[in-house]
Predict the structure.
Amino acid sequence: MLTDKYCKIFREDLAAWFDRECRNLPWRETGDPYNIWISEIMLQQTQVSKVIPYYTRFITAFPDIKTLAEVDLDRVLKVWEGLGYYARARNIHKTAGIILHEFQSVYPEEYAQIASLPGIGPYTAAAIASIAFNQQYAVVDGNVRRVLCRILRFIDDPDTSQGKMKLQDFADTLLDKAHPGNYNQALMELGALVCTPKNPRCEDCPLSVYCLARAAGEQQVFPMHKPVKKRPHYNIAAGLICNGEKLLIARRPEKGMLGGLWEFPGGKQEPGESLDNTVVREVREELDVQVQVEKPVTTINHQYTHFTITLHIYICTFIGGEPKPLGCTDWRWVSVPELKDYAFPRANVKIIEKLLAGDIQLLSNTKLRI
């Protein structure tokens, strides 16, 4: 199937389509590897339409590696706030420091060096090496995988090691070695715009003549995956702990989910435990302080990649104790307007928006105990 003639025509048809249909995206306006790196990290598991404003904001705030490396992580997380997958932001900041000190602020060109940087796997390294440095590495992201699985009528599970290896071999063979960056972007673009997960626009596809799944009328069957397990759901209870005009917030450990972000203290409800008791227990375990739960004020439903939560928010009165970072790395007493200066997870941001809008009223008769 993959003769030299086949591959040549395949590449030409794809390139012609990309010349006509490619989107005008801000990171395509520069060949700077710094910008390309930032865009590729942001685009992991995130749609282009959502990334564009965050990319623009990030590049405006941190226009080069040196600026990014020398700023505090809290500032990076605040600019990143709302984009999700916060480990990416932490790794970007860490990588900037490595490039500043070990590569004199010059982004490394060698694939092995790129792949060794925090948060960069084979796909991202291939994308940066090919797009920024025109090196011959084929990208297989989610969009490309879908295109290839349909073209091949790929009956293996593409999530297995064997499936990934077969698809990578196929991608390597098809790669336009003269223009690897444009070729990779074209195939990713095709998956994003035409060969979509649902209702692919086969009539507009420049590669439809090559597609074995379409020939069999089975486009929707591929890629073939194992059945998706139902995501677990958790109840989380957290407190708006009032002390005069101040609220208590805590900073999550940098390692782990939502690392380095600030939050209203609380945690997961245990079996047989009431939600108000969850707040009291979690605050004690996290900060070694005592609170009295006054009343529930709102609930927020939120989805993460592997689970969902219902966040139950309670107004609490601070009773006593000197806060200690037992289950967190730091803590602060802050006013409601000051909450905007800290980076919070999206579920907490929804609470802050309600506070700023006056939709949640705090206790007005608490005495300052700081």
The chain has two domains: 4-221, 233-357. The beta strands are 233-243, 246-251, 262-263, 266-268, 290-303, 308-320, 330-334. The chain is about 45% helix and 15% strand. The chain has a mean pLDDT of 93.
